[in-house]
Write the structure tokens for this entry.
Amino acid sequence: MIHPGLLTIDFGALAANWRLLSERVAPAVCGAVVKADAYGTGAADAGPALYRAGCRNFFVAHASEGAALRRALPQADSRIFVLNGLEPDADPIGDYCAHRLMPAIGSEAEFQRWRARAPASMPFALHVDTGMRRLGFDSAAELHDSLARHGAQGVELVMSHFVSAEAPGDPLNDEQIDLFAEARLLLPGVPGSLANSSGAFLAAKPYGDLVRPGYALYGGNPILPQPNPMACVVTLEIAIQQIRWIEAGETCGYNSLWTARRRTRLATILAGYADGLPRGAGAIDGRPGAEVAISGARCKLVGRMSMDLCIADVTDLPEDSVRPGTRAEFFGPTIPLDDFAARSGTIGYHLLTSLGRRYERRTISP
Ligand SMILES: *Cc1c(COP(=O)(O)O)cnc(C)c1O
């Protein structure tokens, strides 16, 4: 049985986006962040597609994601880093050795456990915090003390993470670049990695040796509000089930939160928040909502999002251009992902990583 929601993932566009970023940051090397199942696109397909495009450095959040990715990327020259660091209960031999994973170690305690239990030859990364206050050694001084205790053998990469790379005017970006440069002095000759997608577009070019884009690879706009330089990877289209007219003053959806201002034609669409659509995507009285494209025209979602359904206002479309079975594009080539997200009160990252499991998935190979 085929689901009325169709999710199309274009791995050719994914590969093209990687190549674009790769050329942009050269001579730095471009990696790929494939955590959260490659931002919802499916890491088992995205990983090999990126590898074929030339990518050799992959980043996941958890060791378990790394282990799954390793099955898709058995090649000896592919490297997998685990961004979240050595989990409190991780067994470096079992989890990391068996699948050739490298944790981004970010504290003295993690470093101690690694040295106590991992073979000296096993490579790993070090994470130094430069402002996020989330993961990593608190300062270059702390990193210095840990390195004095444990030595630098096996350190393959030193990394940090931007707080506001998507806001190029934020002075914190330059402060982080300086703090990271200071930390790198402790590890001469060790490659460094700082930039995420938006970091790869900062004027200061903080590329280091290895860049870590995620969102931009999957078609998200890394330089909002400027036009998106990336190709569209993910398209979500969902079929209409019913169409009806309501009178001015009538309402639709749970709790009657949206009121028709005119005689209105409504189309009921076959997906809702159980499919990952934001609960705030529909307009309610006094607050606009997101738009979808039906037969090429933008239509507003109205009323509160249901679990398995939502409603669009199709009054302005020619009557015969909307019928049961017609698909509405939620995001894709017509409605930019970032546009749908912003109008729904969320971000494109959240939409991608919440994509429902019920959709029919169609993949386009490079
Ligand atoms: C998620 C993540 C990235 C990728 O960020 P994007 O904004 O998606 O490019 C890079 N580095 C770290 C540490 C991350 O957690």
User: Anything to note?
Assistant: The chain has two domains: 11-218, 234-364. The chain has a mean pLDDT of 97. Residues 234-364 form a domain with the Lyase, Ornithine Decarboxylase; Chain A, domain 1 fold (CATH 2.40.37.10).
